[in-house]
Amino acid sequence: ALGFERAIIRGYFEAHDRNPGGAIDSNFLRNYMNAKEAGYTYIDVYISPCTGRSTCKTPLQQANDLIQFINTHQMVVKKIWLWVDVDPDSGNWDLGPIKNRQILNDLHTAWQSTGLEFGIYTSQYQWELITGDNNWVLNSSLPLWYAIYDGHPSFNDYKIFGGWTQPTGKQFNGDSKFCGG
Question: What is the CATH number of the domain that holds 17?
Fold first, then answer.
């Protein structure tokens, strides 16, 4: 695993193209098996929730779909990350701050009901774009994985938002290739 202990792979993706309601990533199981085979100690999964379309499943249905898949395939997952990030191609998080906040609350409730450890992936910019307010708090006790693509693996650039006084992780590079890939 090239000295890394944790792999974070996509398990569920938002609606787009011919996938009107969100779905399990067709590469999820293979990517999970590859991570296990490579020797990763911890495997986290992220979900890009379906939001912004009338065809989206409810947050609880999306959580249940992913949990059922994980259980069916006897996967051991350390943490689920809720990907709170606008994807212009999917039209997600395009409902305005009030409705977006309600969806975030519904996602929070759905994932709390699973008993699994979960956290939030977002950035200060995306949080304000989606919720309308950097100071709006969903649950600041959840782990935060934030994104600033600056090439620096440190938290020195972190600025408080959403009630999180400190992050758990940072995505500092968006396109790394290993093994000559």
Answer: 3.20.20.80
In a domain, residue 176? The reply is no
Q: From the CA atom positions of the chain, what is the Rg in Å?
A: 16
Domain range spanning residue 131? 6-171
Q: 39: how many CB neighbours lie within 10 A of its CB?
A: 11
Both tokens of residue 110?
A: 């759905």
Cβ distance 108 to 84 under 8 Å?
no
Q: Which amino acid is at 113?
A: S
C-alpha distances in Å from residue 169, one per residue of 4, 76, 120: 14, 21, 10
- pLDDT tens digits, 71-127: 999 999 999 999 999 987 777 898 999 999 999 999 999 999 999 999 999 999 999
How many residues belong to the chain? 181
Answer yes or no: is 177 within a domain: no
Tokens representing 137? 């708090």
**What is the sign of the dihedral through the CA atoms of 53, 57, 59 and 62?**
negative
**Cα–Cα distances in angstroms (integers) from residue 128 to residues 77, 86, 147, 163, 172, in the given order:** 29, 11, 14, 12, 19
